[in-house]
Design a protein that fits this description.
By secondary structure, this protein is mainly beta. Helix content is about 5%, strand content about 50%. The protein starts with a strand and ends with a strand. The protein binds copper (II) ion (CU).
């Protein structure tokens, strides 16, 4: 007797039979045995209605096969050509809890499996990404859910990004921190809040996009550094950060009306920061109404040597109402909100925020068309912003004031169509439009003519920046090991502004204003972006990615149209926190970033127990919007530059490292975990070989957490190298290295969640590498002292309480 072939069904062949016949027979049977199985069925909601447009993914752990299909107009799905085996089935659709189940298929089996999705509760909703990156989520990106502890220790939403690889934070006002991705920050990074992109309506960027959402209203943070899919990018060179609120909740089956909410409050000792937030929703199975509100107040913090850091106070209030509806493949959501910031100090600026009032409307409609999913959005935001000398600065020996009023309006739409082609490709087509209108006028100060009167200083008069974009992108899963992404995008940007005038017809303003008014100021930039990326997964433990992206950002209105070369008024144009004086340049060209980046990840099969990921990158930026020196001026021991925006080529390279490992897992001691993130980068202007402004020095955070039932806690160490590579043109300050010790803990009860901890527990004095200068102290010295970098906060302990109901 001989035994041929493989697999349990192969036959035993009697000796007299020829070997050839036996082989043929075996091959034929083998083929029959390996006949492909089919899995099909309906995707249903709890009331039994079909859900079109749900995404179904089958993952075969043994053969590393992944298949993705979308349910049809009538909710049907079908996956064919499946080798026999056990699969993990995952089903998702916005507004519903993610579903998963293991399915074992026999040879030739045609299995019918209906899937019923359950509606989300507010807590679960955080796991659903509102901005779907499709089947290709960049390996270099990170997606993170936000929990109570993150919310309790963060005053503003940007702080929620502090642990994300590739991100560094530029200190600004306490509620207006600005994220940088791979050294490219502020408007060089695209920041999307609940699908909206809003502009900074302030010559000091006191109201960046993330300042419009309270941390208590953030459920998820998504960072795409470097190689960003074109469907998520546009008008940026650094990458994309998107932040989303929890998805709306709907009633469960058999439940007529569902109500759910929570109340949170926090206290931070340093600066006596405190605040409260409330979330409440009222829903049926098809309709949902929700409200979120928050209030935050903080006074000046003290640094590690006990010195009060003036102008670090802030207060704001947010209110948002949400209306949502769902049914038969349609999902609709309307958010309306308003924010008021009555005051916010800016220690690294000459000015403070004395009022910022905004309203927004954000309407999204998602529909399944049977052959694809249509995702549309329309949004509007209106901002009235006022600056002046705030309460800390006005007590200085040189009392003066200078009101500045800014009015900004953003109006935009986006349309995205996602079409699955066969089983292999997902095609996305999209269009976006955004129009930003800006007026920036500075009322006269009585008795100061001709310097600050008798007329209103018109800085930006009816400035426009309109952007129309389209893109096409295809993500392809060629086989279990290879996935690719290819995208092309065009953004056309039009800018223009009306005639301007100074405080008076005095020469210090008249010459500049006349020259500016006689210029042809309309500009039109045609930007082309391209992303090509490939991912290779040779086995269950390793993933590699390599990509190239060309990304473009057109100049903003201040970079082009800030017109005054007068020393005092150009000092008001500064979103860098460096104390310098900036003048616009109508002829600025868009900056174009060419990035090559790779990523490699090693991990356990389930990516649960350990992972290490390294992301090196190199970006060459043609026409980087930097500065030319016009003049310098010395006040006492400090020298400042008057700088005009100008295009220069630049280069940034660096690497991010992120990892985590479970060091123990047991029923008795829970789970002990170490996680860490590190970043290193180097930026150069290529014509002079000098450093670029605000490049974060080598830095790392390493944390240990023990999770045991309801308890989780652990210390964190933050190490930052000295910053010696600085931008000489801006007289950027060097900062020494430092080490900080933090501690975070959380405890969950059914009706109470507690978070507590502390930062900078050893109360070290340190200077913020991206904090700019302490302009308050310089001003307090009567503009005579040596200006110093801004110091970070000393020891602070916090406690946060959440009561869900
Ligand atoms: Cu401002």
């Amino acid at each position: 007797m001989m035994r041929f072939g493989r697999g349990k069904g192969c036959i035993r062949v009697a000796a007299p039979l020829s070997v050839l016949t036996a082989i043929l027979l075996c091959v034929a049977m083998g083929h029959a045995q390996q006949g492909k199985a089919t899995l099909a069925g309906n995707v249903l909601d709890p009331s039994g209605h079909s859900i079109p447009g749900a995404t179904l993914t089958l993952i075969d752990a043994v053969n590393v096969i992944t298949k993705t299909v979308v349910s049809s107009r009538s909710g049907l799905y079908k996956v064919t050509d499946l080798p026999a085996g056990t699969y993990h089935l995952k089903v998702s659709f916005p507004g519903f809890a993610p579903y998963s189940q293991d399915v074992t298929l026999e040879d030739n089996e045609s299995r019918n499996l209906d899937v019923t999705l359950q509606l989300l509760t507010r807590r679960e909703s955080v796991t659903v990404t509102a901005q779907s990156p499709g089947i290709y989520a960049p390996l270099a990106g990170t997606e993170r859910e936000v929990d109570d502890r993150d919310q309790a220790r963060s005053l503003d939403a940007a702080e929620l990004l502090g642990n994300s690889p590739g991100v560094s934070l530029r200190d600004n006002g306490d509620l207006a921190t600005i994220p940088l991705l791979h050294g490219l920050g502020d408007e060089r990074t695209k920041v999307v809040v609940n699908g909206m992109t809003v502009s900074s309506s302030c010559p000091n960027h006191m109201n960046p996009p993330l300042s419009y959402i309270d941390p208590s209203d953030v459920a998820q943070v998504n960072v795409m550094a470097g190689i960003t899919p074109v469907s998520m990018g546009g008008d940026s060179i650094g990458g994309t950060i998107s932040i989303d609120s929890p998805q709306p909740v709907f009633a469960r089956p058999g439940e007529r009306v569902h109500t759910e909410g929570g109340f949170s409050t926090f206290f931070r000792s340093n600066g006596q920061g405190y605040g409260a937030s409330l979330a409440d929703s009222f829903a049926t199975q098809n309709f949902s109404f929700g409200y979120t509100g928050s209030w935050t107040n903080t006074d000046d913090y003290r640094d590690g040597s006990g010195h009060r850091v003036t102008s670090t106070y802030a207060q704001n209030t947010n209110h948002t109402v949400t209306l949502a509806a769902q049914g038969a493949g349609n999902f609709f959501i309307l958010q309306a909100g308003l924010q008021n910031t009555p005051y916010q100090g800016f220690p690294n600026q000459q000015m403070d925020m004395t009022e910022n009032h905004s309203e927004f409307l954000n309407l999204r409609y998602r529909r399944n068309l049977g052959w694809g999913v249509l995702d549309t959005r329309v949004f509007w935001q209106n901002v009235r912003h006022e600056m002046n000398i705030g309460k800390d600065k006005s007590t200085f020996p040189m009392p003066m004031w200078m009101p500045m009023d800014t009015h900004g309006r953003d109006l935009g739409y986006s349309v995205k169509l996602e079409i699955p082609l066969a089983e292999r490709h997902t095609f996305q087509l999209g269009s976006e439009f955004q129009r930003f209108v800006l007026d920036d006028t500075w009322p006269p100060v009585p008795g100061t003519a001709p310097m600050m009167g008798p007329n209103t200083f018109v800085n930006i008069n009816d400035g426009h920046r309109s952007r129309l974009a389209w893109f096409a992108e295809v993500a392809s899963k060629w086989n279990p090991k290879w996935t690719t992404l290819l995208g092309l995008r065009n953004d056309t940007v039009w800018t223009n502004t009306g005639p301007v005038s100074g405080y008076s017809s005095n020469m210090m303003y008249a010459m500049d204003a006349d020259a500016f008014n006689s210029l042809s100021r309309a500009r039109n930039d045609v930007d082309i972006d391209l992303t090509a990326s490939a991912r290779y997964e040779p086995n269950r433990y390793t993933t590699f990615e390599l990509g190239y992206a060309r990304k473009t950002r057109a100049p903003n209105l201040y970079e082009r149209y800030a017109w005054s070369t007068d020393w005092m008024t150009s000092g008001m144009i500064n979103w860098f926190g460096d104390g310098n004086y900036y003048v616009g340049n109508v002829d600025l060209k868009p900056e174009v970033g060419h990035t090559v980046s790779g990523a490699a990840s090693w991990h356990d099969r389930a990516r649960k127990d350990w992972e290490i990921k390294v992301t090196p990158y190199l970006t060459y930026i043609r026409d980087f919007i930097d500065v030319n020196e016009l003049a310098t001026r010395t006040y006492g021991e400090s020298t400042f530059s008057q700088l005009q925006f100008a295009n220069h080529n630049a280069r940034i390279y660096g690497a991010d490292l992120v990892g985590d490992v479970a060091i123990w897992k047991s029923a008795r001691f829970g789970r002990g975990e170490i996680d860490g993130v590190a970043g290193w980068l180097h930026g150069r202007r290529l014509d002079t070989g000098t450093g670029l402004y605000q490049m974060m020095p080598l830095n790392t955070r390493i944390g240990f957490t023990e999770k045991l039932k309801r308890w989780s806690a652990g210390p964190e160490i933050q190490l930052v190298d000295r910053k010696s590579d600085v931008d000489p043109r801006r007289f950027e300050q060097k900062t020494p290295g430092f080490a900080l010790l933090n501690f975070n803990a959380g405890y969950q009860l059914p009706h109470l969640r507690i978070s507590a901890g502390g930062s900078n527990l050893l109360n070290r004095y340190y200077e913020l590498p991206l904090g700019g200068v302490n302009f308050d102290d310089f001003q307090a010295s009567g503009w005579s002292s040596q200006i110093r970098p801004l110091a970070g906060p000393g020891r602070s302990v916090y406690v946060g309480l959440t009561v869900p109901f």
